[in-house]
Amino acid sequence: MIWNLSEVFNNPLGALTELAYMIPIVLISLTLHEWGHAYAAFRCGDPTARNLGRMTLNPLAHIDPIGFISLLFLGFGWAKPVPVNSRNFRNYKAGEAIVSLAGVTMNFLLVVLASIVLIVLGRVYPQAFLNNALMQILMYLLGINVSLMVFNLIPIYPLDGYHLFELLFARTLPTKVFLFLRRYGNWILILLLVLFRRLGASPISLVQNGVISLILYFISL
Question: Which residue ranges make up each domain of the chain?
């Protein structure tokens, strides 16, 4: 599910066509992810994101250029974090958990949507599988959103998984563990991603491919 720059030189028209399919999916996926955080925070009692114009489906309010390009070329990426003031939550722990999971929940729903479309097409109109453009769009919808789900659940700051990790283990692990992750989380992520790229394999890609294979297996039943 990664757009390969080398394809531009080998097959420029095909590569640009794939990019045309991928960009709308990336915009939709990142936008809904961040909107989910903003809406969940608002429902839990915190209007910060809404007041700052982030509870919107306008992609321009959410897209981080580097994260957007990273998702296109590397298979993992991010948007601008939604500002949240957890002190406004009516229930702190519930609010933290709900808001942290809201983004990946939106991506999960997009995965379910793509899967349902594939199931319906397979049973009602199997000839649609011969349409390469439609299949590419659906596979990008699956792959990109699985990638966002897996990447954001890594328990390293500032990802959503870190907030869940802190919520679950704040009383059992030393405070210095969380201080360390907050201070060096960005650098740890960069180091891990560079390491995975050098090894030629990424756990994110492996899980992504595994989930997609599992989905397609159930579709074929």
Answer: 6-220
| Distance in angstroms (rounded) separating the CA atoms of residues 218 and 60 | 36
Distances in whole angstroms, Cα of residue 37 to Cα of each of 41, 42, 113, 182: 6, 9, 20, 20
Q: State how far the Cα of 202 lies from the Cα of 83, in Å rounded to an integer.
A: 29
- Residue 166 falls in the annotated catalytic set: no
Buried b (16+ CB within 10 A) or exposed e, 75-90: bbbbbebbebebeebe
What residues contact residue 75 under an 8 Å CB cut-off, 6+ apart?
1, 2, 147, 202, 204, 205, 208
The one catalytic residue among 7, 18, 34, 166: 34
Which structure tokens are listed for 213? 């294979």
> How big is the CA angle at 161 (ends 159 and 162), to the nearest 5 degrees?
70
State the amino acid at position 49 in one-letter form.
Answer: A
Weakest-pLDDT range from 89-98, 186-195, 202-211 = 202-211
Of the ranges 34-48, 84-98, 207-221, which one carries the lowest mean pLDDT score?
Answer: 207-221
Token pair, residue 203, equals 């756990």
